Amino acid sequence: MPTKLFLPEDRYFGPDPKQKEIAQQLYRRVKDLPLICPHGHVDPRMFADPDYSFGTPTDLLIIPDHYIFRLLYSQGIPMEALGIPRKDGGEVERDHRKIWQTFAEHFYLFRATPTGMWLTHELYSVFGVDEKLTAESGQRIYDQISAKLATPEFRPRAMFERFNIEAMSTTDAATDPLVHHQALRKSGWKGRVVPCFRPDGVVNLDNPAWRQNIKALSAVSKIEVKTYKSYIAALENRRAFFKRLGATATDHAAMTAHTEELSPRQAEALFRRALAGKATAEDATRFTGHMLMEMARMSIEDGLVMQLHVGSFRNHNPLVYARHGTDMGGDIPIQSEFTRNLRPLLVKYGNDTRLTLVLFNLDESTYSRELAPLAGHYPALRLGPPWWFFDSLSGMERFREMATETAGLANTVGFNDDTRAYPSIPARHDLSRRVDANWIAGLVARGIVDMDDAQEMIQDTAYRLAKKAYKF
After folding, report:
1. Contact, 296 vs 355, CB < 8 A?
2. Strands (E), 294-453
3. Helix, strand, or coil here: 98?
4. Residue 471: per-residue pLDDT
5. From the centroid of its chain, how far is CA 251?
6. Phi/psi at 333 (nearest 5 deg)?
7. Fewer CB atoms near the end CB (10 Å): N or C, the chain?
């Protein structure tokens, strides 16, 4: 007999009866609120084309999701066996049923992980799967999902509406012409999907394609980028274009939180060295630090919220990077420091209420030591939710415990799903809402806040903080 899939209504709530009862009350108040998705990586093409198809269950759930294939790879399963494309066009497994069967046979690897929680929820709630995914059930579940994906109800726009998504931001390179966003705006569809300006490819000098990206920036902005001054003009041009298409935010990734302000002469000299292919590692660090300050200045002028993701050693595994490229699950946390590194930016712009700078970080030790005190002081700073490896039940719990008592809830920005896995969005938000309901219920049970405050707090964490911070 197949093993039935069961999702308890009180899942993720603590075992104390009083806390659990309060948590359930709070969760029920917000479980059906609209979803604000201010940061993620869903492809806008799927919304621009009303007839877009996700393809097979493998296309949808395995091949694009590094949360899944990185854990399988850690157990010695080659990425080629999972259908992950190679940069050199080399052979990979093309039998999607076989790939799915490999996934099903190893689904036990995801026990007690956030990925396992999300996948179980979406299989059950999105696709109506009522048995556990195992080697024995794998092909039946594959057929069930395939049948659903062939129906109009499982087109991206229909799912957007069923998921009750109020607003979603994609993440787009500064050089992206945003053709899908333009088509989407012309289509008349009412769903709100907006771009987010990500300039890393034209800012980080250690990007191997930096000079090519500068040529693309010249072409798309119609500003010939030959000097630092023209470079800044081109970036401001692109930000304005993104904003016209609905963007409310920018996104920046840096190894560290280092910021410094170069003089115009220093910036020009460094930029010219980079154009000539002569920039050093120190140049790259200094230029990124300077450009973070420039982006803060631009955000004050154009009103775009600034997001900064710090602490990821990108593409740590050179073999995987050489074969498959970026975003393959090989981004690993490093130790981070903010108090000194971010001070030049904060001294100049941190007291300006026109700036909203949302910090994301992979070094949990900084939450209580640095980030909460900084966000609890500087008007411009907000703390983003746990990201990547700490985007989990336990990571969210630790974040609330370490950050809130010093920063205050109002200096956080709610939840964002940060995903390419479109069907997992409701599951991710549901997990976050349950974690916050349980945390707030514990405060009520201990007499730290009363139920009136708790009901306001759960509305904030589930909906209002994200809507306000990201100007949706």
Report:
1. yes
2. 305-310, 312-313, 332-333, 357-361, 381-383
3. helix
4. 96
5. 10
6. -65, 150
7. N
* 79 and 328 Cβ atoms separated by less than 8 Å: yes
Write out the two tokens for 404. 């809130």
Q: Where are the beta strands (DSSP E) in 128-276?
A: 165-169, 172-173, 193-194, 197-198, 249-254
Q: Residue 388 burial by CB count (10 A; 0-12/13-18/19+): exposed, middle or buried?
A: buried
- Amino acid identity, position 117: M
Task: Please state, in angstroms and as integers, the Cα–Cα distance from residue 117 to each residue in 75, 105, 107, 427, following that order.
Answer: 20, 17, 11, 8
pLDDT digits (tens, 9 = 90+) for 130-156: 999 999 999 999 999 999 999 999 999
CA atoms within 13 A on the CB side of 410: 6
Helix (H) or strand (E) holding 139: helix 138-149
Pair type for strands 312-313 and 332-333:
antiparallel
Side-chain half-sphere exposure of 188, counting CA atoms within 13 A:
0
pLDDT of residue 3: 84
pLDDT of residue 153: 95
Q: What is the pLDDT of residue 165?
A: 98
* Residue 167, helix vs strand vs coil: strand
- Predicted confidence at residue 51, as pLDDT, reads 86
- Alpha carbons 150 and 358: distance in angstroms, whole number: 39
In percent, the amount of the chain with pLDDT more than 90 equals 97
pLDDT (mean) for 92-104 = 98
Each residue's pLDDT tens digit, 369-427: 999 999 999 999 999 999 999 999 999 999 999 999 999 999 999 999 999 999 999 99
Phi/psi at 415 (nearest 5 deg)? Answer: -115, 150
As a CATH number, domain 54-152 is 1.10.2020.10
Helix H or strand E encompassing 36 = strand 35-37
Task: List every span in the chain annotated with CATH 1.10.2020.10.
Answer: 54-152
Q: Which CATH class is domain 17-53+153-469?
A: alpha beta
Average pLDDT on 104-128 reads: 96
Q: Residue 252 above 90 pLDDT?
A: yes
Q: Write the burial class of residue 252 (CB in 10 Å: 0-12 exposed, 13-18 middle, 19+ buried).
A: buried
Report residue 50's pLDDT band, with 50, 70 and 90 as the boundaries.
Answer: confident
- Rounded to an integer, what is the distance from CA 380 to the centroid of its chain? 21
